[in-house]
């Protein structure tokens, strides 16, 4: 049976060029495609599989698609953050390190909220960001206060479990 290193080397040699082309078509940028292709193979290395793949291109494109979504989500969050800063009346002078920490925090919050169901996420955001009471949320969403409470508890439990990790 081939060792893990040989499997990854063969996978890289046989499919790296194809993956770069696949990503370049979707991203329109050779450099971003090369970066994501490398990130894809790093992810393959960290998954430690000793079995050769039956469908290597499907496997690689699934990983690359996930990384591409993460990249787009991060860009969108960063853009929204920069637009919010630009709209503020007073000039904020923050260091690049602080900016990076803020963006990484926003990405983590987005990832956390993405793990919630749509209704649960909506109720959580209405309560936490808009400051609405459970009664007001129930009225706006046309659901009972008990339903709002159940979703709020589910969201808070999700947050607590994620914080423990």
From TrEMBL:
This is Sigma-70 family RNA polymerase sigma factor. GO terms for molecular function: DNA binding; sigma factor activity. Belongs to the sigma-70 factor family. ECF subfamily. Residues 107-159 form the RNA polymerase sigma factor 70 region 4 type domain. One of its GO terms (biological process) is DNA-templated transcription initiation. InterPro entries: RNA_pol_sigma-70-like (IPR039425), RNA_pol_sigma-70_dom (IPR014284), RNA_pol_sigma70_r2 (IPR007627), RNA_pol_sigma70_r4_t2 (IPR013249), RNA_pol_sigma_r2 (IPR013325), RNA_pol_sigma_r3/r4-like (IPR013324), WH-like_DNA-bd_sf (IPR036388). Residues 11-76 form the RNA polymerase sigma-70 region domain. Pfam families: Sigma70_r2, Sigma70_r4_2. Keywords: Sigma factor, Transcription, Transcription regulation.
